[in-house]
Structure formats: C-alpha cells, structure tokens
C-alpha cells in the first residue's frame, strides 16, 4: 500500500475556492450596496492574497488588522487563509497603548487599517519594530505615500489561485485576542482545523444549507462572528455583513433579504425587541436566532420565544475551545439551560481541588473537544493554567443535570463573597431585569468593611426617568430570594462600557465605581 503523508492539508481558504468553482454565480456576499457572486468575491480574495505575497508575506507571517466591518476585512480573512499567513484582527476600541501592545505581542509584520485609525498608528509606528518597511496598508486613502494603497495593490495583482501553499491542519489561521474582561488580553491561537470544525459543526447544529441567508451585524473581530461565517462558507450560503449594528436597519434587512440565520449578543436582541419597527411579520423568515457572548435573561428569552417560537438557540462558549449548544427543540423543556456539549465534546464540573462534583452541584466548568486552541501565544505559563491534561478550565461556574445539560451560574471571578456566603450576580440580575423600566443590568461586587463584599447593580432604562435609583433599589430588595442577595446600591447609566463583542465590561464598571467612591 502507498505511504500516506503525515500532513493533512486543510486550508479553510479552500471553502471559497470550491464555492467559486461549484456555485460561481450564487450570491455570496452582500455588503451595503455591493452584491458579489462567489466567483467575483473569490477573484478579489485571490488578488489580495497575491498582493500580500508580492509584498513578501509568507506562510506563518502575522498580519494585524485594525478595521471596522467592511468588505476589505472579509477579503483579508479569506486571502490570508489562502496564503497560509495568520490573521490578527484587533478591536477598533483600542487606544494607542493597547494597539501597540497587541501588534507587538503578535509579532505582526504588517498592519492594515483605514484613515480613522491612521493617527493612532502614526503615533506608535516608531515602536513597532517587527512591521516591515512596506508593511502599512490603508484601504481608503491612496494619497498617503507612506502607506500602501489596498485597492491599487489588488488592481495590480493576479486573480489566480495560489497553487503552491501547503497548509497543515495544525497551522495557525488566526490569533484572537481576548476582550480583557478578566485582565490583560491574551492571544488565542486557532488553527485551520479548528476553523474547519467550526464550519462543519455549526452548519449541522444550526441546520444551515446553500439556500440559507446569514446576516452578521456585530463586529467581525469578535470570535462569535466565525460561528456563522465559517458554516456559511462551507455550505455556500449568502452572507450579509452590516458595517455596524442598528436594530431598525437589521429588521429591514431581514425582511427584504429573507434572512434565515443570525447570531447576536443579548444587548442586540434586546434592542431588536424594543425597536419601533419590530414586528413578527418582518422577522418571520428567521429559522435561527442564536444568543451568544453573555447570559440572556429569562424575561428576554420568554418574550423572544413567545413572539418568534421554535427559532431560539443559545451558545455558551469560550474562544479557547469549549462550547455547549441549546437547540431550538430543547428550549421548551430546558429554558434555563445553555445546552449540551456537541458530539465529540465532553464536560465536567469540578471543585477547587479539581475533583468532579455530583450532578446538580455548582463548580467550575471544565471541557474538552475538537476546537481547543493551540495555545495562548507566547504564554506557556497561562496555557498551562488553562489547559490541564487536555481539559480546558473555563473560569465559569455552573452545574449539569441528569441529561448533561449545562446551567450557567456565573463567572468564577464575578462571584461575590458577602459575609462568607457565595452570591452569584446572575441570580440578582434575573430579578432586576424583570422590572418593566429596566433595559439592561449588570451586578458586581465592591469592597465592604463589614461583609467583605456587597452587591451593586448598574442599570440602563428603556426610557429616561421611568424609575429612580432609590425606587428600583427598594423594588429589587423586596424580591430577591435571600437577604444576602440584597443590593447595596443601584445606579443608572446612559450606556454601559462594552468590549468589541458588545459584552458589558464589569471590571470597568467596578473600577469606575470604586474610583468615584473614594
């Protein structure tokens, strides 16, 4: 028998190549007024891949991308894949110090950005030692001579496929930096195999087909974007990208384009339900509405399922590689669960000693499966803390029932210890969110000389002046399930500090509250 090669050539860029060959005239990408077939999109991607190669980018080289949602960002994701380079998408919320830190940490040889971020890049340029001489590319201002012009590079490059790039399944495809919600961002290295598994797993889990129409209104930098981007490309579905999230525009697009699949963070789902143009009829084409990124409170789940039944999925997941999925058929019987591990994944709940706890008992969520990260980039110490004997320690608290359905309790680091009692912010948030005036809520702990820690609730209101902080405090403390769950103070915000995914940054809230109290 012939000797099989050790290498398994999985390059996720193959997905686009295949679609352009098998479905060349199928509508592949919609961005604003642009509507591209798979063949047209693939030609653009090949041009940027060849242009990057002409600039000296090789397999394994890191490319930092500082861009809002745009067609060029999509092209880069797939062009970098075909080239075997490594995409490093960075949050557009970062300031100069943060950008310098992550561009340097990732060893990026190139930076692609637009005019909006050029002043920040100019400020930190002298300190970016790894970026090569022709390594700065602008997508929107060809007159700046110190930057390469993205579209000129594309126009001059070949649209031929890159035939001689050999990518192994374990080669890195991208480095996703954690949001920093629990400390300094860490570079999460994800391979071509992991992204290919995203494609196959989520296509089957979400019942996606070539006839599906997928929309994404959140940030493409957020790892959650790959949960629908990869399977859409696998099956050859139409993918709609919005430049930013706007609830009214989202509803209009769903109705006009007959969108079938969407994944969103809780704040976006809340905004859609409260939008002035919301109607069941406008959203009736949706087959999947998936919540991701943070717990969705029960009052929102119930309203969503009453208005748009048999469409709700919930995804609990860590970019580092463990997930559970609540299927739309499971919601009726397990509404408070975040689902079960998919096939080939395993879950454990452990105590502080790492020992498994009985069914129904709260502990740290530990899991393993095919999408496990390679490492935290250049941080073997942190990698060893997170992955022990092949199991990923999530830092989240939860419990499982007899059927292995997971119930999320809270982040381990968000847990409040008051008077020696464990207080879970999510339990209090569920109560606060039931008040008719409350739009969103975040509960966190602050130092307390008597109790060690006490609870504070930050809220945003659906309409200004619907309730005072004092009235809400009284209302909540009359309804929590135990004395130790009573909140010390309520304060009302116009808007929450958020990460790029839209997730509320409790650490920032806590720090700002403590600073203002001193």
Characterization of the model:
There is one protein chain. By secondary structure, the protein is of the alpha/beta class. 30% of the residues lie in helices and 25% in strands. The protein contains 15 helices and 26 strands. Helix 2 (38-54) crosses helix 3 (71-83). The mean pLDDT is 92.
Q: What share of the residues lie within helices?
A: 25-40%
Give the name of the CATH architecture of one domain. Answer: 3-Layer(aba) Sandwich
Task: Kindly report the name of the CATH homologous superfamily of one domain.
Answer: ANL, N-terminal domain
Low-confidence stretches: none
Q: Which class do the helix and strand fractions yield?
A: alpha/beta
Summarize the structure.
With 518 residues, this protein is an alpha/beta fold.
Write a concise keyword list for the protein shown above.
GMP Synthetase, Chain A, domain 3; 518 residues; 5-stranded parallel sheet; 25% strand; globular; 8-stranded mixed sheet
Q: What is the topological layout?
A:
Elements: H1 13-22, E1 27-31, E2 34-37, H2 38-54, E3 62-66, H3 71-83, E4 86-89, H4 96-105, E5 110-113, H5 118-124, E6 136-138, E7 148-149, H6 150-156, E8 172-177, E9 187-191, H7 192-205, E10 213-216, H8 226-235, E11 238-241, H9 247-257, E12 261-264, H10 266-273, E13 288-291, H11 298-307, E14 312-317, E15 323-326, E16 346-350, E17 363-368, E18 375-376, H12 380-386, E19 387-388, E20 391-400, E21 406-411, E22 416-418, E23 421-423, H13 425-432, E24 438-448, E25 452-461, H14 469-477, E26 487-492, H15 506-517
Parallel strand pairs: 1-11, 3-4, 3-5, 5-6, 6-7, 10-11, 10-12, 12-13, 13-14, 25-26
Antiparallel strand pairs: 1-2, 8-9, 9-18, 14-15, 16-17, 17-20, 19-20, 20-21, 22-23, 24-25
Helix pairs in contact: 1-2, 2-3, 2-6, 4-5, 7-8
């Amino acid at each position: 028998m012939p000797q099989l090669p050790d290498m398994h050539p999985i390059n996720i860029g193959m997905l686009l190549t295949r679609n352009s060959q098998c479905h060349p005239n199928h509508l592949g990408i919609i961005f604003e007024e642009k509507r591209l077939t798979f063949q047209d999109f693939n030609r653009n991607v090949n041009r940027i891949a060849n242009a990057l190669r002409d600039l000296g980018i090789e397999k394994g080289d890191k490319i930092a991308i500082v861009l809002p949602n745009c067609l060029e960002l999509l092209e880069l994701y797939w062009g970098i894949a075909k080239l075997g380079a490594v995409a490093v998408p960075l949050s557009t919320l970062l300031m100069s110090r943060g950008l310098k830190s992550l561009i340097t940490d990732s060893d990026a040889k190139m930076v692609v950005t637009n005019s909006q971020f050029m002043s920040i890049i100019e400020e930190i340029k002298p300190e970016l030692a790894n970026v090569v001489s022709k390594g700065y590319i602008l997508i929107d201002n060809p007159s700046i001579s110190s930057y390469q012009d993205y579209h000129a590079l594309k126009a001059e490059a070949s649209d031929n496929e890159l035939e001689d790039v050999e990518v192994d399944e374990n080669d890195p495809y991208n480095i996703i930096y954690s949001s920093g919600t629990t400390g300094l961002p860490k570079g999460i290295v994800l391979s071509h195999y992991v992204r290919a598994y995203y494609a196959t797993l989520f296509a089957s889990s979400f019942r996606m087909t070539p006839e599906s129409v997928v929309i994404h209104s959140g940030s493409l930098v957020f790892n959650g974007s790959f949960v629908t981007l990869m399977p859409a490309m696998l099956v050859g579905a139409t993918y709609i990208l919005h430049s930013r999230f706007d609830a009214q525009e989202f509803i209009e697009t769903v109705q006009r384009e007959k969108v079938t699949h969407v994944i969103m963070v809780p704040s976006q789902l809340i905004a859609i339900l409260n939008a002035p143009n919301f109607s069941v009829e406008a959203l009736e084409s949706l087959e999947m509405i998936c919540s991701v990124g943070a717990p969705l409170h029960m009052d929102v789940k119930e309203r969503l399922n009453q208005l748009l039944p048999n469409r709700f999925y919930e995804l609990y997941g860590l970019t580092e590689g463990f997930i559970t999925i609540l299927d739309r058929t499971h919601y009726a019987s397990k509404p408070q669960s975040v689902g079960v591990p998919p096939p080939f994944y395993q879950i454990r709940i452990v105590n502080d000693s790492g020992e498994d706890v009985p069914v129904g008992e709260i502990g740290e969520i530990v899991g393993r499966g095919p999408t496990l990260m390679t490492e935290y980039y250049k941080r073997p110490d942190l990698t060893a803390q997170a992955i022990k004997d092949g199991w990923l320690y999530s830092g989240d608290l939860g419990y499982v029932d007899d059927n292995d359905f997971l119930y999320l309790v809270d982040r381990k680091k968000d847990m409040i210890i008051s008077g020696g009692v464990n207080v879970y912010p999510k339990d209090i948030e569920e109560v606060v969110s039931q008040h008719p005036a409350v739009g969103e809520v975040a509960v966190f702990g602050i130092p307390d000389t008597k109790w060690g820690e006490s609870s504070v609730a930050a809220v945003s209101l659906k309409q200004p002046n619907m309730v005072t902080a004092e009235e809400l405090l009284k209302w909540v403390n009359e309804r929590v399930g135990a004395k130790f769950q009573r909140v010390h103070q309520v304060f009302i915000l116009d808007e929450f500090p958020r990460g790029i995914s839209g997730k509320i940054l409790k650490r920032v809230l806590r720090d700002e509250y403590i600073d203002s109290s001193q």
